[in-house]
Prior knowledge:
Blueprint: H1 6-20, H2 25-100, H3 127-133
Amino acid sequence: MFDVSFTELMIIGIVALVVIGPERLPKVARTVGHLLGRAQRYVSDVKSDIRREIELDELRKFKSEMDDAANSVQSSLRDTENSLRSGLNETAREATQAVSGKPDAEPATPAAPAIPDTPAAPSAPAPAQAAAAQPDAAPDAQPKTGTTP
Length: 149
């Protein structure tokens, strides 16, 4: 901080001895030492407070980044779930149409899922069951799969 050599300290000490006097010099030196100690403690406290504030700001920034990442993952999962549910609903609707032979009307509330929130999803009937469900069909007729030969 300050570059004070030994000779400069000696000159300051001699001047202080002459100006203050030998009786009061030890008391003044002790008081100056206490004041310098307090100043150093104050400076170190301010430095540690500043360091803590910087670390706190970094932690807040990290927390906000993690919150943003969690929100993006959650929205991505929600979008994936919605797309899977709509695909399953469409597949169930097509299976119902294939079994009954007539197209179903669109549901009145498209927001209500046709697939329940259970792990077991309804499966499409097997082609033999579909043929057995239609009594008009000829026994040798193949079920319609939606593709033309």
